[in-house]
Amino acid sequence: MKTTISIIKADIGSVGGHIKTSDRVMDLCKKKLNEEKGKLIIDCYVTRCGDDVGLLMTHERGVDAKEIHSLAWETFKEGAELAKEQGLYAAGQDLLSDAFSGNVRGMGPGIAEMKIEERPAEVFVAFMADKTEASAFNLPLYEMFANPFSTAGLVLDPKLHDGFKFEVHDVKGSRKIILNTPEESYDLLSLIGLTDIYAIKRIFKKSGEIAAVASTEKVNLIAGRYVGKDDPAMLVRAQSGYPATGEVLDPFARPFLIAGWMRGSHRGPLMPVGEKEANPSRFDGPPRIIALAFSIKNGKLTGPVDAFSDVSFDDARRRANELANYMRRHGPFQPHLLPPGEMEYTTLPDVMKKLEGRFERL
Ligand code: F6R
Ligand code: MG
Ligand code: MG
Fold first, then answer.
1. Alpha-carbon dihedral of residues 53, 285, 128, 170, nearest 10 degrees?
2. Which atom of ligand 1 has the smallest separation from the CA of 284?
3. Would you say 58 and 43 are in contact if contact means Cβ atoms under 8 Å apart?
4. Each residue's pLDDT tens digit, 62-99
5. Residue 133 — φ and ψ, nearest 5°?
6. C-alpha 275 to ligand 3 mean position (Å)
7. What's the pTM value of the predicted model, to 2 decimals?
8. CB atoms < 10 A from the CB of 228, how many?
9. How much distance in Å is there from the Cα of 231 to the middle of ligand 3?
10. Which protein residue's CA is at the shortest distance from atom 6 of ligand 1?
11. Does 284 contact ligand 1 (Cβ within 6 A)?
């Protein structure tokens, strides 16, 4: 049996600023999806990271299925209505249009979906991050699937030894390329290190089976103006021919800097946290990531294990807080501040207009 796992996420409003989806909105989303269990979908799990709600659904309808996208869209719509009623902040922010045409792609929500032939004991990890963008996953995905100093299985496990294929999207140029590892690792790194341009969309085994998929929608580019960040979600298969769950999680134990945080305009550390701690409050951050590990059988989910709530990530959180202090020290200066093209908010055009006549030739 082929099972499809879909995670569709959106920011439809939050409590006390951009911190946390409300419990009532979460309950509404859970109720909406649960009503479709055994009908449209096999199983579901509703989660959130910061101000983003994630709808994880399993079904048999394949990727980009109209009925599934429509269920997500209707759920977000109703959630946004309730958020408005509650006076939540930025209610309905990521729902960019009223005219749903069968696919949520390009309409605001982020989407990561994979159709798989379940293994006898299928394992996957669902990630959601807040106050950042899809390319924040470039570094950890490279480590999981191509760095033997991180994933021991690349060296030790014959089933991983062949390496993987990376589908990389040029999010500004609307084009994609597939690169093989380990053969083309350096070419791959020259692209994915440029996180303002390239984002890893999918990873495949050399035999073609899907290994990972991330949402790469750029809300701000879609809307043509600032409407919020493209906070990403991703699904990663684990164990037995894929990196072990522990290898999938290990890159996050070494905090690294990513773009996002306050006003989508700052570099800061990505902090791995448990579901309950995904409430980015200091300077609207630091950016958070959650990891939920599931088992799945005939589409039925068992779990999740809230992987980053484990004490082994305490030190990563402590170091992320140290990095946060260090980056905050720079205030409005780079490298804390992002370069002009990457900022989601900027008064620079207005300042330049005002000062234009006062510049003198050197
Ligand atoms: C938005 C976000 C926040 C806001 C900031 C300012 O997703 O992450 O950092 O950019 O709180 O929000 P406004 O302009 O709505 O007051
Ligand atoms: Mg927000
Ligand atoms: Mg968000």
1. 110
2. 9
3. yes
4. 999 999 999 999 999 999 999 999 999 999 888 877 77
5. -135, 170
6. 14
7. 0.96
8. 20
9. 5
10. 263
11. yes
